[in-house]
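Recall that a protein's primary structure is simply its ordered list of amino acids. Everything else, from secondary elements to tertiary packing, is in principle encoded there. The following example makes that idea concrete.
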Amino acid sequence: MKKVNLKTSSNNITIIIENNAIKKFDVSKYIKNKDVVIITNTTVGRLYLKQVNRLFKDFNVNSLILPDGERYKTTQTLEKVYNFLLKNRYDRSVTLVALGGGVIGDLVAFAADTFMRGVPLIHIPTTLLAQVDSSIGGKCGVNHPLGKNLIGSFKHPKLVLIDTNTLKTLPKKEFMAGMAEVIKYALIKNKKFFNYINKNSEKILSLNDEDIIKIVHTCATIKAQVVTEDELENGIRALLNFGHTFGHAIEASKNYKGILHGEAVSIGMNIASAISADQGYLNHEEYCEIEDMLNTMNMPTMIPKGVNVLSLMKHLNHDKKKISGKNRFILLNEIGSAFIDDKINDKYLLDLSKNFIS
């Protein structure tokens, strides 16, 4: 078992990383009262809801199963959560458990932050993307037709319980989407980790237990350190958005259909790396290393067909990281070192985007 502690000014969050954790971890000390509601989706519920129910056998446990998919990360789905809690007469003593990937985690955490002005939360992330990224750090929310995650807040859980065994039921496509976030951490913070991923890619992709726990633990540790330093994303935490500016715009342009978040981030990282090289920050050899890694792992690097460049620009202009009318891009000085740039203009982005249309 690996353990990471994330400390902020007002929270102390425990992150547990273990194979088969949902079968044996004692959750009791992380729950003050008896009422527990597990919220999951149709796919994950079918696989793991019974096991997780048993994990909370000493509590009054209930469950809500939502539809599966990014297109359901909306205020309408959020209202279904509120209605369920209110109709079952839950109050501020209820603990919400988010069982699933990034969509469930973000939506349930936002519900936990806003229901009765805040109730306790536990994350049990079941996808690689959620385990290494979205379940850690407190950012939560829902999408808006004009952009991804435009409505949200910060809500830290009491516990993030990561069972790496759940990745064995994850479709390969979903696993690879999560690898985009893993590679992101290496690119912005840790070149040794980048080299480790390169050297051990076959074992990682075959879900070798030791290597999977290694990459999840490394990513969780990096994110915990960054969030501890900058909880509300006023500075260094923005670096975690590497690849996400274009990624989110691509997702929104596709109406969150036909592309996974991690796939969009992979494309965004390739574009951001290209901008870094084109602007003279990242040397060409390292850009090629990045592109080679993405290609070797069969991850997308080009904007998919059907994405209109003008639509892409519209969504770039609604990016939630924008400040004082300026987009903020995360660029690379080198592999393992990133910085924030707000000097990229719209004409440059429009011209550059055309080079990445597949």
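The radius of gyration is 20 Å. The CA atoms of residues 204 and 210 lie 9 Å apart.
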